[in-house]
Design brief:
The protein has 589 residues and is an alpha/beta fold. The chain is 49% helix and 14% strand. The protein has helices at 9-31, 59-62, 64-67, 71-81, 107-120, 150-168, 184-202, 217-230, 239-264, 276-280, 283-293, 308-312, 347-361, 378-388, 425-431, 434-440, 454-458, 465-485, 504-526, 530-549, 557-580, and strands at residues 44-45, 55-57, 90-96, 100-105, 134-138, 172-179, 271-274, 297-300, 303-306, 319-324, 327-332, 336-339, 366-372, 396-401, 404-408, 411-412, 450-453. Strands 7-6-5-13-14 form a five-stranded parallel sheet, sandwiched between helices. It has a four-stranded antiparallel sheet with strand order 1-2-4-3. The protein has a three-stranded antiparallel sheet with strand order 8-9-12. Strand 15 (404-408) and strand 16 (411-412) form a beta hairpin. Helix 5 crosses helix 21 (557-580), helix 7 packs across helix 8 (217-230) and helix 19 (504-526) packs antiparallel against helix 20 (530-549). The two termini are 36 Å apart.
Length: 589
C-alpha cells in the first residue's frame, strides 16, 4: 500500500500535472513541434468550476512570447506530446478557450483520497510543509492584575488554534504567555492592594484610595485574604514593605488564576515567561548596551531614548491609520523612552529585550504575536526595534485581532445580569459551552470586528455551526453502528473498489476531503484558523448532501463497501478538524 504519511492529495495532483506538462514540453521541443527554449513560468491550479477540468494551466499563454507561437498551437503541441496517462492520476487532457490546458482526474485519484484518509487516520491532514521550522506563538498575555476579559476569550481561541494549525502543517511550535509581572501595572497593583488592606483596619475615609488605582472587587477580595492571613501585622509597616509583601502574596494567586482560566478554555502553554526575569538577569541592560553600540539610542533630559522614527519607517511607521469601532484613528510615531530619568526602564524596553530573547537566545526563526487592534501603532515600532538591535524585523509577525461585541436577543450585552459587571472570560465559559466558544471565536478572520451571539452559541440545533458539524460526525457513527448491527461487515478501505465512487455527491465530498491538508497549510500561512472552521462546516454540509443522495445501507455489496469507506474517511476528517480546534468529537447526539 502507498505510504500516505504527510499526503496532500490536492497538492500531489497539481505536482503531477506540472510534471506531465514539463515532460510534454521537453518532448515537444525534442520532436521539433516547439523550438528549444527555456520553459516559461506557468501556473497550475484548481479552477473554480471543475466541470471544465480538475486542474488547469496557463502554460500555453505564458509560453506565447517564449516560443513565438499562438497559445492554442503551443497547447496542441503539448497535448500531442503528453506522456501516457495510464499510471497517473489523470484520465484525459483537453484544450479550452484561448489555450488553457485542462486535465481531468481519473477515478484512481478519488480512490486514493478515500484510501489516504482511512489509512492515515488521526494523522490525515498533517504535512511536513513547515520542515520543523521553530516558531513561537505568543497570545493572550493578560496583565496578572485582574481577571481576563472578553478580548482574551477571542485571543485564546485564535492563538491556540493558530498554533495547532502551524503544528499540523509541520512547524515546531511553542505556545507562550508573557506574564507582565513588572513595571507600572504591578506598582499600581501593589498600591491598590496595600490601600485596600489598610482600609480594612483604618476605614476608607482614613486611607484615600489612589485615583489611578484598580477599583475592581477582586482587589478587595485579595486584600481581605491577605488580612485574614496576616492580621494587622503590616498596618504600621513602611508602605513599600507592605506593598512588596502583599504583591508577593497576591501575584502568584492571580497568575494561577490566569492558568486556571486558560486550562478551563483548553489552552495549555509550553512556556509562561516572566517579565521580571528580564530585569533580574540583566537582559534589559544588555539590550540597552547593544542598542547604544549601534547608535540607536541617545540621552535627553536624563532619560535614554530609542530612535524609533528612524527604524519604524521601513514598516509603515511615523503615521498609521487604523479602523476600529470608534472610526478611523491616526497614531503618530515618535522616538520612545527606554529608561526614564529616574532610572526605571519602560515597558517598551522590556518588550525589546523579551523579543531579543526569543530570537537571539532561544533561537526561534519566527515569532508570532497576537495583539489587540488597539496596539496597531506599536507594530512598526516593535519590528523596527528588531532591526535596530541587529535582528530581522521581518521575522516578527503581528496578528492584529479586532474587537468583540457580545450579543444576546439581538442587542449588545454590556454587563452581566448576575454580577452587574463586565463579562469576563471565566463567566462567559460558565454561560456558553466551551465547544461553542472556541468554534465561534474562530468563525471570522482575526482582523474583522465580530459579534459573539450568545443565543446561537448555546443553541442545540443546526443553526449553531459547531452543533451542525458535531451532528455530522455523530450521524456517521450512527450509520456505521446500524450497519454493524445488521451484520454488514466493513472489510476495510484497502479491500473496497473505491473507483466505484463516481456519483456527483460522492466526488464533491471526496474533493473536499482532499482539500483538508492544503487548508491547514493555508491557515498556517495566512495566520487565519477561521479557514479550518469554514472548511469543516462545509465538509459537514457536503456529507449531509451525500447522505441524502447516496444510499449506504441496502446498496449493492461492492458499492456499500466503497460508501462505508467514504463515510469513515469523512468521519476521520471531521474528527481531525475538531481535534485540531480542541472541540469534543461526539459519537452520539
Amino acid at each position: 500500500m502507498q505510504d500516505f504519511k504527510f499526503f496532500d492529495p490536492k497538492q500531489a495532483a497539481m505536482d503531477e500535472a506540472r510534471a506531465l506538462l514539463t515532460d510534454a514540453a521537453h518532448a515537444a521541443m525534442k520532436s521539433g513541434a516547439l523550438p528549444e527554449k527555456e520553459l516559461p513560468n506557468f501556473v497550475v491550479e484548481v479552477p473554480n468550476d471543475t466541470k471544465n477540468g480538475d486542474i488547469a494551466s496557463n502554460f500555453a499563454m505564458a509560453g506565447a512570447r517564449v516560443f513565438g507561437a499562438a497559445p492554442r498551437q503551443i497547447a496542441q503541441a503539448l497535448v500531442d506530446a503528453m506522456p501516457e496517462l495510464s499510471g497517473t492520476h489523470f484520465e484525459r487532457v483537453e484544450i479550452a478557450g484561448p489555450g488553457f490546458i485542462n486535465l481531468f482526474l481519473a477515478p484512481t485519484w478519488f480512490a486514493d483520497v478515500v484510501l489516504a484518509a482511512n489509512a492515515a487516520g488521526e494523522n490525515y491532514g498533517r504535512t511536513d510543509f513547515g520542515k520543523g521550522e521553530k516558531i513561537n506563538v505568543e497570545f493572550v498575555s493578560a496583565n496578572p492584575t485582574g481577571p481576563m476579559h472578553l478580548g482574551n476569550a477571542r485571543g485564546g481561541a485564535l492563538g491556540d488554534c493558530l498554533a495547532a494549525a502551524l503544528d499540523w502543517a509541520g512547524y515546531d511550535v511553542t505556545r507562550e504567555f508573557l506574564i507582565n509581572d513588572a513595571g507600572n501595572q504591578i506598582m499600581k497593583f501593589g498600591k491598590s492592594l496595600a490601600t485596600r488592606y489598610l482600609q480594612i483596619f483604618k476605614g476608607e475615609d482614613a486611607v484615600p484610595f489612589p485615583e489611578d488605582g484598580y477599583q475592581g472587587e477582586d482587589i478587595r477580595v485579595l486584600a481581605q485574604k491577605f488580612a485574614d492571613r496576616n492580621g494587622d501585622r503590616y498596618v504600621d509597616a513602611d508602605f513599600e514593605e507592605l506593598k512588596k509583601a502583599i504583591v508577593d502574596y497576591a501575584l502568584p494567586i492571580n497568575v494561577q488564576g490566569l492558568k486556571d482560566d486558560m486550562a478551563k478554555y483548553r489552552v495549555y502553554y509550553d512556556k509562561w515567561f516572566s517579565e521580571t526575569t528580564l530585569h533580574e538577569s540583566g537582559a534589559i541592560q544588555e539590550m540597552l548596551d547593544k542598542l547604544a553600540e549601534r547608535g540607536a539610542t541617545y540621552e535627553k533630559d536624563g532619560a535614554i531614548w530609542y530612535r524609533s522614527m528612524q527604524y519604524a519607517e521601513k514598516y509603515g511607521g511615523n503615521k498609521v491609520t487604523r479602523k476600529g469601532l470608534d472610526g478611523e484613528v491616526t497614531d503618530e510615531d515618535k522616538d520612545e523612552v527606554l529608561v526614564r530619568a529616574n532610572g526605571v526602564p519602560t515597558y517598551f524596553a522590556a518588550d525589546i529585550a523579551y523579543h531579543y530573547n526569543k530570537f537571539a537566545v532561544r533561537g526561534f526563526s519566527r515569532a508570532i504575536d497576537v495583539w489587540g487592534a488597539d496596539h496597531h501603532g506599536h507594530v512598526a515600532r516593535m519590528k523596527g526595534a528588531m532591526d535596530a538591535i541587529g535582528l530581522d524585523g521581518e521575522k516578527l509577525d503581528i496578528v492584529l485581532m479586532q474587537f468583540v461585541r457580545l450579543m444576546q436577543d439581538g442587542k449588545p450585552v454590556r454587563m452581566s445580569k448576575r454580577t452587574g459587571k463586565a463579562i469576563g472570560l471565566s463567566e462567559l465559559l460558565d454561560e456558553v459551552p466551551i465547544d461553542s466558544a472556541r468554534f465561534q471565536f474562530n468563525l471570522r478572520e482575526p482582523g474583522s470586528v465580530m459579534d459573539f451571539d450568545m443565543d446561537l452559541a448555546i443553541a442545540q440545533d443546526s443553526n449553531n455551526p459547531v452543533y451542525y458539524v458535531q451532528y455530522a460526525h455523530a450521524r456517521i457513527c450512527s450509520i456505521l453502528k446500524k450497519l454493524a448491527d445488521e451484520g454488514v461487515h466493513f472489510a476495510g478501505a484497502e479491500n473496497a473498489d473505491l473507483t466505484l465512487l463516481s456519483e456527483p455527491a460522492e466526488k464533491e465530498l471526496i474533493r473536499h476531503i482532499a482539500d483538508f491538508p492544503g487548508e491547514i497549510i493555508s491557515a498556517a500561512k495566512s495566520y487565519d484558523p477561521a479557514r479550518i472552521t469554514r472548511y469543516v462546516t462545509e465538509l459537514a454540509n457536503r456529507y449531509h448532501k451525500f447522505y441524502n443522495s447516496c444510499r449506504v445501507m441496502g446498496a449493492e455489496e461492492n458499492i456499500c463497501q466503497a460508501r462505508i469507506a467514504l463515510c469513515t474517511a469523512a468521519k476521520t476528517v471531521i474528527a481531525n478538524a475538531l481535534t485540531l480546534l480542541k472541540i469534543t468529537v461526539p459519537e452520539s447526539m
